[in-house]
Specification:
Elements (H helix, E strand, L loop, with lengths): L1 H6 L3 E8 L20 E4 L4 H11 L2 E4 L8 E3 L1 H7 L17 H7 L5 E3 L10 E2 L15 E9 L11 H10 L3 E7 L32 H9 L5 H18 L2 E2 L4 H15 L1
Parallel strand pairs: 1-8, 2-5, 2-7, 3-5, 6-9
Antiparallel strand pairs: 3-4, 7-8
Helix pairs in contact: 2-3
Length: 269
Amino acid sequence: MLWVILGAPGIWWIDLQIDGVKKGSLAREKQRLPAPSSIIASSFTSPVDALYLAAIFDPVFTVSYPGTRQVRPISLLGAILRALSGPEEAPPASVKLVDLGTLVSENPDSVIVVFPECTTTNGKGILPLSPSLLNVPSTTKIFPINLRYSPPDITTPVPGRYWSFLWNLLSQQTHCIRVRIAEAVYNTAKPGDVSSEKKDKYLVNFLDLPEEDSTDMSSGMRKRGINAEEQKVLDQVGEALARLGRVKRVGLTVKDKAAFVEAWSKKIR
């Protein structure tokens, strides 16, 4: 059924490549693919992300937040709607959160999907990652996956654009998904607390995704109690996502995007 939904608007050509695997030899390299009890750390640009991942892996979807190591499990529909919703710096008070280690143990026959950037982008950069990945057990594989679209007009970096997304999706005869899967990353870090100060930043234009110094990104993450070993794990995942997408990591945060969305909304009124 999901493949029918994907095929109806012309999403039928999928270019899949896996790190270290030659084309035509995938059948012999199944250990390089996400499997039950593993984690997918996916880029987040479009509602189609969730549809494609659901069609391939039938996973458990989650929502990550920048200020907590826990996640919120959601349905496929919830994941699709998240790609069209505004950025959230924190979960609603009534929402029940769980850490990824618990979610893996409770769903041993499922892949768990995490969108560690916490909000959608236009695919031109990788945002600072949520610390939710730091609750993944050390023996669990984390697979960074990047999805890109051609033409790229079905990305939804600005929330609430339901009709424009549907128009762009249905007005093209075909859409191609470029899928890249990196080698598995393991959470080898020992938990600890490190604090540092970070200056507030003002986002002039979120869609331009200006590059930030890596030191600024690291200090921003350490502010949330992340030590050097933990930062290294997040850097591994972030660098893999950037390499797969042929983009750069940027220092723009969920708070920055929320500020941009607010300013943009006032401008178009």
